[in-house]
Amino acid sequence: MSALLQDNLSVAILRMLAQAPDDAGVSLPRLGKRLGQGASVLMRRLTLMGDAAIGGVRGPGWVRVEQQDGRWVAHLQEPGRAQVQTLPPEDEMGD
Questions:
Q1: What DSSP character marks residue 71?
Q2: Contact by Cβ (8 Å): 5, 80
Q3: Which of 7, 8, 26, 91 is most buried by its number of CB atoms within 10 A?
Q4: Burial 43-71 (b: 16+ CB within 10 A, else e)
C-alpha cells in the first residue's frame, strides 16, 4: 500500500475529490475549509499525489491541479479514482 494511502489527509483529499460532480474538481479554498488545512499544506500534499517527479521519483498521478478563472482547482484523475475504490469505509479509518 502506498504511504500516501496510510495518511488520513491524503485519503480525505481523495474522498472529497471523488465526490465532486461531473469531474468539476474542488477549489483549494473549499478543500482547505472542509479539511481544516491551509493552502500550502494542501498544495504540498497534492504535489505528492500528482505526477510530478520529486527526487527522481514520479508521483502516482492521482490528482491534477490547475488554475481556472484565477483560482486553483484540484481534479481526481483515473488512477486516483481507482485508489478511491480500494479505500476502506470511512468508519474504519483510524486517526
A1: E
A2: no
A3: 26
A4: bebbebbbeeeeeeeebbebbbbeeeeee
